[in-house]
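[step 3/7] fold_predict: job queued, chain A
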Amino acid sequence: MGRVDKAKTFVGDTAAKASEVNTVFDDIYNEFNGSVDEYNINFDRPELKAALGDLFYPVGSKYTNFSDGTNPATLLGFGTWERIAKGKVVVGVDSTDTDFDTAEEIGGEKEHTLTDAEMPSHNHGGSTSTIGDHNHGDGANNILLKNDGNYTVSATADKNAPNLMYYGTIQPNGAHSHTISTSTAGSDSAHNNLQPYITAYIWKRTA
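[step 4/7] structure written:
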């Protein structure tokens, strides 16, 4: 009992680590002259912890704890550990994406302010104010317009009189334009860029 089940079932470096664990366990077993069992074996031995640690937490492994921020070297009794990913999430390596193609790349931002180029294509509507009834000036004291329904007759003429003709010269206002304005909106503040998350203590084994 207690041995890692058949080192030959593991491959590569893992097989070597399993064999190392079995060797350490055999040494402890022999110290007890074969009387070791699940009730009296001492798993607190540093060499056994180290061997098990190398098997289950090789260098580069991640250890996560949701309640205790104590260094795993103290909690687990082996290895050298470094706190990582403070305020960050972990993303799997993707060799087809240059943002994620190497381990321990860092990117992203907690808040982001949109640039003009990032704004969605859109239009702003507007309108000019309505101008009431009005006249354009003319070069004569009196003006008589033909009352055919296409012109406004001046106050000096009887608009009901038939077939009035005008005299004098109308002075057009010339080319001109109307301007419109729209009110501004927004405040240029950065927006929240966080996904739903849960925090934990994350450690990386370095040695």
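[step 5/7] annotate
Confidence is low (pLDDT under 50) at residues 1-8, 138-147, 151-157.
Residues 137-171 form one domain.
exit 0
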